[in-house]
Amino acid sequence: MVEQKFHWDTIYRQKRPGEVSWYQPYLNGSLKLLANAGLQPNSRVIDVGGGASTLVDDLLGRGIRDITVLDISDQALTAAKGRLGERADGVNWMEADILQVELPAGRYDIWHDRALFHFLTNPADRRRYIETMSGALKPNGQLIIATFSTQGPSRCSGLEVIRYSPETLQAELGDRFKRVESVEEEHQTPFHTIQKFIYARFEKI
Prior knowledge:
Number of helices: 6
Radius of gyration: 16 Å
Distance between the termini: 31 Å
Strand content: 25-35%
Helix content: 25-40%
Largest sheet: 7 strands, mixed
């Protein structure tokens, strides 16, 4: 959506990546679940809403050879490419809206999403996301998703969000996915406030 792209491009024009509330120098929660998911150098990983996140740095550092970073904001992707320098050439960068993009069927072993899904307040948008994600994951593929928990903020970056528990995430995903594990995290923002997240790993059935 044009308005969504404008919103996120504006944020990344006005702030450096380390100045946004969701910034983490290392995504320890994600990295732990990725390891539990069986991450290997030949794993095909897509980071949806990855933007300027540092996850791609750590994936490259672990020798992952097939990484896709998808984000609606070219400003966010440009920031990540600039940080990585020549290493950015080893990443598939995809500027796209997750609600409109067509991804190859059964392409990915692991789908990672930290803090995109909770912005989908429209039920039809959530269904579209889940259809796209389910189609792009291979059988028994792993979904790692992080959202604001039920004790998290109700708004972020000027937008409303939906807060989740592991059970409501499972209900949203439906019976095509089985929850394997979940954990809560208290994220300290660059402004020294606390945001409560839930991280969960699901397996595609």
